[in-house]
Amino acid sequence: MNILVINGSPNGENSATLKLTRAFLEGMGERAETVSTAELNAQPCRACYACWTKTGGKCVLRDGASEVLEKLRAAELVIWSVPLYCYSAPSHCKALMDRTLCFNRPQVYVGADGRAHHCGYEDGSKPTVLISSGGLPDVAGNFDGLVFQLRHMFGPDTAAILCAEAGLFLNPSAAPLTEAYLARVRQAGREYRAGGRIAPDTQAALDRPMLPRETYIENLNRVFSCGQEG
Prior knowledge:
Layout: E1 3-7, H1 16-28, E2 33-36, H2 50-53, H3 64-74, E3 77-81, H4 91-99, E4 104-110, E5 116-120, E6 128-133, H5 144-154, E7 159-163, H6 175-195, H7 200-207, H8 213-225
Parallel strand pairs: 1-2, 1-3, 3-6, 6-7
Antiparallel strand pairs: 4-5
Helix pairs in contact: 1-6, 6-7
């Protein structure tokens, strides 16, 4: 299967989000090509709309993103492995997301969700998975903007694995918790491979925090208060 992973973390191979993505691929029993957006030097979309009016869906900019856009176009499955930055994507990853405008057309339709969409990949014709992690204790209220964006861009069936409390992956003593979470991510990969979706029970387990929120907040605040003057 031709799978492309977009690694949106500036931490490259050390990304906690990428660790989740690899577990998902293990569950699928698949390998993937990985592209790091931090290394692309992608120019921002300049809204010239030449891809809609002149070039038949080809972006006129020629830079590090150009080849990646063709890889995205050819992939059978795209996994956006994107850490949560200020409730959205890191800026270098967002630059590539914006450039996927060329996968759509200017014509608009109203989807089953009641929202206006551009014809093109917004109809869900490009199978897409979002895997994200953040340092906050809750999924709800923190990942909403990123999930909305990906599902509006690539279809409402875009699967989402959202790991709150990802800071635990940096703590070796939390290994029993993080290994249990990675096992659930592998299960999600198996389910997605079998039917193109994650089972509701597995999704609920993935959305559940690894530690009670009060405990996580207390520990996080203790770490970041070290050395600070009162």
